[in-house]
Amino acid sequence: MEGMAGQKSSLTWVVNISAFLLVLLWTIPTLGLFVSSFRDRDQIASSGWWASFSASEQTGFVRTGTDDDATQVDGLYVIEGTVLEGDQELTAWGTRSREPGAFQPGETTEIEDGWQLTVNEDGSYRLTSEAPFEMRRGERIFTTTKAPANLTTANYQRVLTAEGLGRAFMNTLTVAIPATVIPILIAAFAAYALAWMQFPGRALLTAAVVGLLVVPLQVSLIPLLQMHNSIGIGKGYLGIWLAHTGFGLPLAVYLLRNYMVGLPREVIESARVDGATDFQIFRRIVLPLSFPALASFAIFQFLWVWNDLLVATVFLGNTREQLVMTGVLRELMGSKGGEWEILATSAFISIAVPLIVFFSMQRYLVRGLLAGSVKGG
Amino acid sequence: MELFWLAISTIAIGVFGCVAWFWGSNMILDTIYPPRGEKAGDNIRRANQIRPWLFLGPAILFLGLYLVYPVLDSLWRSLHNADGSRFVGVDNYTWAVGDSKFGESMRNNMLWLLVVPALSTLFGLIAAQLTDRIKWGNIGKSLIFMPMAISFVGAGVIWKFIYEYRDADETQIGLLNYLVTKLGGDSQLWLTLIPWNNFFLMIVLVWIQTGFAMVILSAALRGIPEETIEAAILDGASPLQVFFKIKVPQIMGTIAVVWTTITIVVLKVFDIVFVMTNGQWGTQVLANLMYDWMFRGTPDYGRGSAIAIVLMLLVTPIMVWNIRNVRKEIR
Predict the structure, then answer these.
(1) Quick one: what percent of chain B has pLDDT higher than 90?
(2) How far, in Å, CA of A144 to CA of A286, rounded?
């Protein structure tokens, strides 16, 4: 590569910049949701999340009080109140929608037949009239306000308690852990048999496992649900654990078998010569050596079960107490479609655990993928 | 709290049960055929014939009951009427052929099949090539890989937020509409924009699957012998030529694996459509259509199962291909 230094460094720049853009493109969607989960409803509705780091300008209107709120002071009829809430700052106001920012704070204007309206900088307004007010609805005051960028964790508190996500979190955990542990155990023994024991039909069984890897989950739903009903399991945790175990097994067996086949033959043969039984070899030698493969399957299965919606919907039922997080999220998308502060926060809580697992165990995940097998979903 | 104990006890019972089964059955086998005494040799041989099946037993039971049996049962159901009480032959399949929603689903599945694996593999290849050549490549890889840990439902929320629509005169809070209006266009309801809405759904899956493609392809790229690349550079090949004419042909096998794996995911795509459009506005796909027939309104298990079997048939070629590869490897 000597003699191409100049060309190489300009190329490095191009590579760096394109890589950066690509990474940015892939990260922005999640980032947007993450930032939004810390903003309150008004902020989300009035500006894009990318504007949330600077003070945002909002326009809106409030209505003054009506006849009932009027008091008499020095022969004048007066209605008082405020147009601001929280730590907003008033920059302009108006009385007509066409000119929402016609007046500065502190100015006074006459609306109609002797009604005087003053809006002060602190947001307080004072509407006066010499004759009694006659209006069914309050006058509109249009405001232009500035709200400082403030991020809040209030959404998280609300979502975890009021929207039932705390409960769903526990449900999901209850589904995910047994549904990860049980298939590993069953698969480890089967994988050992396929890798290291001699028996007729071994190749056929291995091929069958590979074939079952791609069976679409959807095919199994109704037959299994009916089977569960007829043997009395019905809808519930036991059913979903068994179902996830069944669906996860082909990948587990395949992954573990591939790994175990690669273990050094001499170690296992010499243990056999020393009189160890298969059970002992499996427990003392193969299982500890297979830890990386076990870990990588555990991550796959955990992510898969945690993120699953279909199996949970079918096998667990849809009452509020039974929903897993993806189920709650789906329900919220239907019922609170426009309330992005709820949706964003819920979504982020539901993806937080997988993300933690992902970033802390990425090494094993990659290794598992490279073992040449992936679950089709 | 009750739930917590239920979960803990299930794990305990499950783990204990498994261990008890494997350990106990092996014990019993060794008692029946003790590997000592005058017939030791004979006994060991016999025990070794039975032992594999003890190890495999639970797995075979689960695979049979939870995967093989359902396929056969679905096949049976697909040949019967709505509640399985009457044999109707291939009526459900002929119904499907004539049904407009089924036609739409097949068309959309084919579209997904063409677009998603191609784009995911392409982006994955680009991402792999780029991140392998920079210092912060591992961080970059992590971030591109990250969507894989996110559920389809979560991804649905994330992308619905990007596609969020506000009237043209309001502030846009959806990123896509914001950019479009900045560039002088009009804000759009992207998810109801037939037929383009299909592509907006596909982007979500491409976003998720690219990381997977990248990880596998990156490993394959690094496995290419250095000499072939050096030789090409000495012969004056440009970086692009090296990439397309030297590297890509050498990892064709891996590209095929990535492509087929994503194809399987695509065929079964359900959650994304389910939560984002629920198959409305011309975005129906097979898996969601099947769900509709099986669980919405009056269930028709016959038709639902027929759709499931069609799905099964579509993945069969890949299944056969996989099995052939593995058998080659075992021999």
Answers:
(1) 5
(2) 70
Please tell me whether residues A336 and A207 are part of one structural domain: yes
CATH number, residue A321? 1.10.3720.10
Q: In A, which residues are within 8 Å of B3 by CB distance?
A: 170-171, 174
CATH 1.10.3720.10 assigned to B95-330 = yes
Report pLDDT for B207: 93
Q: Quick one: pLDDT at residue A371?
A: 67
What are the residue boundaries of the structural domains of chain B, listed by start? 2-60, 95-330
A98 & A239 share domain: no
Do B62 and A224 lie within an 8 Å CB cutoff? no
Percent of chain A topping pLDDT 70 = 92
Three-state DSSP state, A260? helix
Residues of B with Cβ-Cβ distance to A307 under 8 angstroms: 149-154
Strands A108-110 and A71-73: what pairing?
A: unpaired
**Length of chain A in residues, anyone?**
377
Cβ A33–B157 below 8 Å, yes or no? yes
A85 lies in the same domain as A222? no
Check whether residue A110 and residue A165 sit in a common domain. no
Q: Buried (b) or exposed (e) across A34-47, using 16+ Cβ within 10 A?
A: bbbbbbeebbbbbb
pLDDT over threshold 80, residue B37: no
Beta carbons of A124 and A82 less than 8 angstroms apart: yes
A216·B315 Cβ contact <8 A: yes
Q: How far apart are CA B150 and CA A307, in angstroms?
A: 7
Q: Which of B27, B45, B130 to mutate to test the interface with A (most CBs of A within 10 A)?
A: B130
Half-sphere exposure of B296 (CA within 13 A, CB side): 8
Q: Are residues A313 and A177 in the same domain?
A: yes
Predicted-complex ipTM score: 0.85
Write down the pLDDT at residue A375.
37
Question: Quick one: pLDDT at residue A8?
Answer: 62
A376/B294 CB distance under 8 A: no
A90 touches chain B (CB under 8 A): no
Q: Is residue A263 part of a domain?
A: yes
Mutate to test the interface with A, among B15, B36, B51, B55 (most CBs of A within 10 A): B55
Distance of CA B272 to the CA centre of its chain: 13
Q: Which of A147, A174, A207 is the last residue of a domain?
A: A147
**Shared-domain flag, residues A180 and A310:** yes
Q: Which residue type sits at B160?
A: K
Residues of A in contact with B161 (CB under 8 A): 29, 32-33, 36, 340, 343-344
Nearest residue on chain B to A351, alpha-carbon basis: B150
Question: Which of B49, B147, B219 lies closest to A370 in CB terms?
Answer: B219
A293, part of any domain: yes
- pLDDT at residue A317 above 80? no
Please tell me which of the candidates B3, B59, B149 has its beta carbon nearest to residue A354. B149
Domain hosting A181: range is: 157-370
User: Are both A165 and A225 inside the same structural domain?
Assistant: yes
